[in-house]
Write a structure and sequence with these properties.
single chain, 894 residues, mainly alpha, five-stranded mixed β-sheet, two-stranded antiparallel sheet, 9 strands, 67% helix, 6% strand
C-alpha cells in the first residue's frame, strides 16, 4: 500500500476521533457518553501497542510468558468493588487530580513527595510513550513496505506525533480544574478500545480459520516446531515464582499507572459504574488474549527459518496473503492502542508536572503576591504546553535514542518503576501509621534498586558480553550482580528487580514510619483516608486546624482562581451545609479544608495548602491533641449518624402511620360501600318476594297458572336470599379467621368429576362441551367441601360466559414441583387485562362494568380467593390463548 493512501486513511481516522471527542464534550449527561460501558471500555487503555503487538511477540518467542500481565488485572478486578470505590471516594471529596496529588495529600500535603512521585512517573512513562511512537512508525513502514527515514520531516511519525499532541493538549485541558471530567477524551478512548478489540479479533479469526483450519490445526503444526513444549509450560517452582511476581506487578500497574488512575479514578462519574467494570474489563482482556496464541504460533509456522520481527506477525500474516484490507485494519487497531496510551498518559503527566513541580517550585511566589499575574488561563496554557512537549520529547527519545528493546521489555521496566509507589499508595488506604518520611525514603530506595538491577543493565545492554558490571557485579563482587543480587539467581530480570526493589521499599516504609512519628496533618489525613466512609458526607468536620484566618482573605484567594460569581456560589453552599452566618468574620477548620479543596484541582494539593496558609495564621497542634479532636469528631459523626438514623426511622414510622390511617379510611369506606351493596343485594329479592306476596294477598281472582308463577318466584327469590346470606356469612368467617378447614389427601380429578355431575344437565342445555385433563392419580391436600365449592363457582361462571354456540370448558390439573395447579378455562369473551386482580373483589360485578356477569351475588370469586388462601395456595385470573377466561389456583401437594 502506498504511504500517501495510508496517511489519508490515518487522517480520516484522526478526524473521526476529533469529531467524537468534540461531540461528547458538547453533550451534557448524555447516556451515550456517561454510562458504565463507556467507563469500563476506557479502562482498556491498559491494552497498548504492547498488548496489540508485543504480546504476540512474547507468545511467539517465549510461549505462555505473555499471560501474567493480563492475569493480574483479571484476578484483582473483583477487589475494585471495595478498593477502587474507596480510592474514588477519597479523590472525589478532596478534588484530587492525579496519583501524585493522591499520595502527597495523604502524607500531609507534602510538596516534596508530590514532586518525587511525578519524577518516578516521568521516568517510567516517557520511554513507554516513545515505544508507542516507535510501534506506530515501524508498523507504518511494514504496511507500506518502505524504509525508515533518517530525516525528521520526512518521517510520518513526526506528523502523527504533532497531531496527537494537538489533540491531547486541546481536549485534555479544557478546564482549569484538572479534576473535572474529560468526556471527550474518555469517549474517544472507549471507542478506540472497541475498535482495537474488533480489529484484533478479526485478524485472529482470519489467521485461525482462513489461513489455518482452526485451533487444532495450528497446535498440531506448531507442536512440531523446535522448543515448542519447553516454551508452552510454566516450568518448575522457579518459573512459577516468576509468574507470581509478574502477576503482582500487573496488579499494581492496574492501580498505579498514571493513565489507569486517570481513567479509573479521575474520570469516574459514578461509583456504581465499577459494578459493570469488574466483569466487563476482565472479559475484554480474556477476549483480547483469545487469539494471541494462534497469531503468534501461526506466524512461527509461516515464517519458520526467516528473520522477521515476531511483534508484527499480526501485520505480516495478512500481508503474506496479499490481504490489504485486513492489513490496514490491523494497523488501525495497533494505532488505536498506541494513541490511547499516549493521549491519556500525557494528560496525567502534564497535570502532575504543573501541580507538583511547576506551580509549587516555580510559580507559587507569584501566586501568593497581591499583584498576582497567574490566572486560570496561564495554568491551562502551561498544561497544554506540557502535554505537547511530553509527546514531542517522547518522539525525540524514539528518534535519537533508538530504544532498541522490544515493546514488552520497555513496558515491563515502566511497570517495575511505577510499582515503587505501591507501598506508599496502599499504605495510604489501609495503614494509619504510614508517614511522609516513610513514603519518601521507601520510594527513593526502591527506585535506586530499580536503577541498579534494571535501568543500568538495560542501558548498558543486557546481552553485552563486554560488561563486567552485569557478569561480575559492582567492583567484581559476585553478590552484587544486578541480575543475581545477593545470590538470587533463578528469577528473570524483571521479577528479580521487582522482588528486591519492593522488599527494600516495603521494609523502609514500615521501619521509618514506626520509628518517626509524622506531624499532626499526616495523622489527620491518615484518619480521613483510612476511614473515608465515616467522613464521606462531611469530611470538612474531620479536618484538624487551629489558628486565625479571616473569611474575606480566603475569599480573595478563591476569587483569583474561581472568579467572583463561582466563589460566591461556593461560599453560599458552604454556609448552607454547616448553617453558618454569612456575616461571620473568622474562618474555622471546615472553611480552610473547603477552600483547599476548591483550589486543589487548579494548582494541586500541596500548592493549595501553601496558598491558603499564606492568608491564615496556623498554630501547631500536638499529636495527642489531634487524636483527641479526631475522637471528638468521630463521636460527633456517630451522634449525627444516630440522629439521622433516628430521624429516618421516625420518617418511616410516620409514613407507616399515614399508610395505616389511609388504609383505615379506605377500609371504612369499603365497609360503607359493602354495607350499601349488601343492603342493595338483600333488598332486591326481598322486594320481589313482597311484590309477589302482595299480589297474591290482594287479588283472589288470580288464575291458577299465574298464582303458581308468583309462588315459584317467591321460592326462587327466597333461595337466592338464603344463598346470599350464606355467602356473606362465609366471607365474614374467612376474613375474621373464624372459618376452619379440615384438610386431608384427596384425588383432585375425582373431586372435579363430583362437581361436574350435578351441573351436567345445565351444561347439556347450553350445548357446552366440557373436558377434564390430568392424571387420574393426582392427589393434593385440601378440604374437599370447600374446594368443591371453589370449583363449582368457577365452572358455574364459565357456563354463564360460554358462547351460545360451540361452548367449551376445560378443567386442567397438573403437577408442579411444590404444588398442584388447577385451571378452569372457557372460550368466552375473556377478561379485560386491567381487571385480572379486580375480579376477586366483593360485589365486583356491581361496581365495574368492564367485566359484566349475568345474575349472581358478586361474592363467588371473593369467597374462592379466601378459601384458596386458607389452603396456603394462590388464585389468579388471566386469558387463555383462545381469548377466553382462565382462572388458575394452586393447592399443596401430598
Amino acid at each position: 500500500m502506498s504511504s500517501f493512501l495510508l496517511l489519508l486513511i490515518l487522517s480520516i481516522y484522526l478526524g473521526a476521533l476529533f469529531f467524537i471527542a468534540h461531540w461528547a464534550e458538547k453533550k451534557e449527561n448524555n447516556k451515550w457518553t456517561n454510562n458504565p460501558y463507556v467507563y469500563s471500555l476506557s479502562l482498556a487503555v491498559y491494552c497498548t501497542a504492547w498488548t496489540y503487538y508485543g504480546s504476540v511477540g512474547v507468545a511467539a518467542d517465549s510461549g505462555l510468558s505473555y499471560l501474567p500481565i493480563y492475569l493480574g488485572p483479571i484476578i484483582i478486578a473483583p477487589s475494585w468493588i471495595l478498593i477502587l470505590k474507596k480510592i474514588i471516594r477519597i479523590s472525589r471529596v478532596n478534588k484530587i487530580s492525579s496519583i501524585a496529588d493522591f499520595i502527597s495529600l495523604r502524607y500531609g500535603n507534602s510538596r516534596f513527595l508530590g514532586a518525587i512521585v511525578t519524577l518516578i512517573c516521568l521516568t517510567g512513562i516517557l520511554p513507554y510513550i516513545a515505544l508507542q511512537l516507535k510501534a506506530i512508525a515501524e508498523t507504518f513502514h511494514v504496511v507500506t513496505k518502505t524504509a525508515m527515514s533518517k530525516y525528521i520531516f520526512s518521517d510520518t511519525t513526526t506528523y502523527v506525533s504533532i497531531a496527537l499532541a494537538l489533540f491531547a493538549s486541546y481536549y485534555g485541558t479544557r478546564y482549569a480544574d484538572a479534576s473535572e471530567k474529560r468526556k471527550g477524551i474518555v469517549t474517544a478512548v472507549a471507542m478506540e478500545s472497541v475498535l482495537k478489540l474488533v480489529f484484533f479479533v478479526t485478524v485472529g479469526i482470519y489467521v485461525t480459520f482462513f489461513v489455518f483450519d482452526g485451533f487444532d490445526d495450528i497446535y498440531q503444526k506448531a507442536s512440531l516446531l523446535e522448543r515448542f513444549q519447553e516454551k508452552n509450560t510454566i516450568g518448575g517452582l522457579p518459573q512459577a515464582i516468576n509468574w507470581f511476581l509478574l502477576c503482582v506487578l500487573s496488579m499494581f500497574a492496574i492501580f498505579l499507572l498514571p493513565r489507569q488512575f486517570q481513567v479509573a479514578v479521575i474520570e469516574n462519574n459514578r461509583e456504581n459504574h465499577i459494578n459493570t467494570a469488574i466483569w466487563l474489563f476482565p472479559l475484554y482482556l480474556l477476549i483480547f488474549n483469545l487469539f494471541v496464541y494462534p497469531i503468534a504460533w501461526g506466524g512461527n509456522i509461516l515464517f519458520e527459518g526467516k528473520e522477521v520481527n515476531s511483534d508484527v506477525y499480526s501485520l505480516l500474516i495478512p500481508q503474506l496473503f496479499d490481504n490489504k484490507t485486513m492489513t490496514v485494519l490491523v494497523f488501525l487497531g495497533g494505532f488505536s492502542a498506541a494513541i490511547s496510551m499516549i493521549v491519556v498518559s500525557s494528560i496525567g503527566l502534564s497535570t502532575m508536572i504543573t501541580n507538583n513541580i511547576l506551580i509549587p517550585y516555580n510559580l507559587l511566589g507569584r501566586l501568593k503576591s497581591e499583584d498576582q499575574t497567574i490566572s486560570n488561563k496561564t495554568i491551562i496554557n502551561s498544561r497544554k504546553i506540557g502535554i505537547f512537549l511530553l509527546i514531542m520529547l517522547s518522539y525525540f527519545m524514539y528518534r535519537f535514542f533508538g530504544l532498541d528493546y522490544n515493546l514488552v521489555s520497555i513496558g515491563m521496566v515502566a511497570f517495575v518503576i511505577i510499582a515503587q509507589l505501591a507501598p506508599a499508595f496502599f499504605g495510604a488506604l489501609f495503614w494509619r501509621r504510614g508517614s511522609r518520611l516513610g513514603a519518601v525514603y521507601s520510594i527513593i530506595i526502591g527506585f535506586l534498586i530499580c536503577i541498579y538491577t534494571l535501568l543500568i543493565p538495560y542501558t548498558i545492554g543486557i546481552t553485552n558480553i563486554n560488561s563486567t558490571f552485569i557478569s561480575n557485579g559492582f567492583q567484581n563482587i559476585p553478590l552484587l550482580k544486578p541480575f543475581q543480587l545477593f545470590g538470587l539467581d533463578y528469577l528473570d530480570p524483571v521479577p528479580h528487580a521487582l522482588f528486591w526493589s519492593l522488599l527494600f521499599n516495603i521494609l523502609t516504609y514500615i521501619s521509618v514510619s514506626v520509628s518517626f512519628k509524622g506531624n499532626y496533618r499526616e495523622r489527620n489525613y491518615a484518619e480521613m483516608f483510612v476511614d473515608i466512609n465515616k467522613y464521606i458526607t462531611n469530611h470538612e468536620n474531620a479536618f484538624v486546624w487551629k489558628g486565625t484566618a479571616y473569611r474575606s482573605d480566603i475569599e480573595k484567594v478563591l476569587i483569583r482562581f474561581l472568579g467572583e460569581e463561582r466563589t460566591k456560589r461556593a461560599m453560599n453552599i458552604f454556609n448552607l451545609k454547616y448553617s453558618i452566618d454569612k456575616n461571620e468574620a473568622l474562618a474555622d477548620a471546615r472553611l480552610i479544608k473547603f477552600s483547599e479543596n476548591l483550589l486543589t484541582g487548579h494548582i494541586g494539593t500541596a500548592s493549595a495548602r501553601i496558598l491558603i496558609s499564606s492568608v491564615a495564621k496556623e498554630e501547631k497542634i500536638s499529636l495527642p491533641e489531634v487524636l483527641k479532636i479526631l475522637e471528638e469528631s468521630k463521636e460527633n459523626i456517630i451522634t449525627n449518624k444516630k440522629l439521622t438514623e433516628t430521624s429516618n426511622e421516625l420518617k418511616v414510622i410516620s409514613a407507616k402511620l399515614q399508610n395505616a390511617n389511609d388504609s383505615l379510611l379506605e377500609k371504612d369506606k369499603q365497609k360503607d360501600e359493602f354495607l350499601d351493596t349488601v343492603t342493595h343485594e338483600l333488598r332486591t329479592p326481598i322486594t320481589a318476594i313482597r311484590a309477589a306476596s302482595e299480589i297474591l294477598h290482594d287479588d283472589d281472582d288470580i288464575p291458577e297458572d299465574l298464582k303458581k308463577q308468583f309462588l315459584q318466584s317467591i321460592i326462587s327469590e327466597s333461595d337466592r336470599l338464603n344463598r346470599l346470606i350464606d355467602k356473606i356469612l362465609d366471607l365474614e368467617k374467612f376474613e375474621t379467621g373464624k372459618q376452619k378447614i379440615n384438610v386431608a389427601v384427596y384425588n383432585i380429578i375425582e373431586t372435579i368429576e363430583k362437581v361436574i355431575e350435578p351441573l351436567q344437565h345445565l351444561i347439556n342445555n347450553k350445548n357446552i362441551t366440557i373436558y377434564v385433563e390430568g392424571k387420574s392419580s393426582l392427589t393434593a391436600v385440601y378440604d374437599e367441601d370447600r374446594i368443591f365449592q371453589v370449583i363449582t363457582n368457577l365452572v358455574f361462571n364459565s357456563i354463564k360466559f360460554c358462547p351460545e354456540i360451540n361452548g367449551l370448558i376445560t378443567i386442567a390439573a397438573s403437577e408442579k414441583e411444590h404444588f398442584i395447579e388447577i385451571q378452569v378455562i372457557d372460550n368466552g369473551k375473556g377478561i379485560n387485562k386491567n381487571d385480572f386482580n379486580l375480579v376477586f373483589d366483593k360485589f365486583y360485578q356491581s361496581t365495574n362494568q368492564n367485566f359484566k356477569k349475568p345474575i349472581g351475588s358478586g361474592l363467588g370469586l371473593a369467597i374462592c380467593k379466601q378459601i384458596i388462601e386458607h389452603h396456603k395456595g394462590k388464585i389468579w385470573a388471566s386469558n387463555a390463548k383462545n381469548g377466553g377466561a382462565c382462572i388458575t389456583f394452586t393447592l399443596p401437594k401430598n
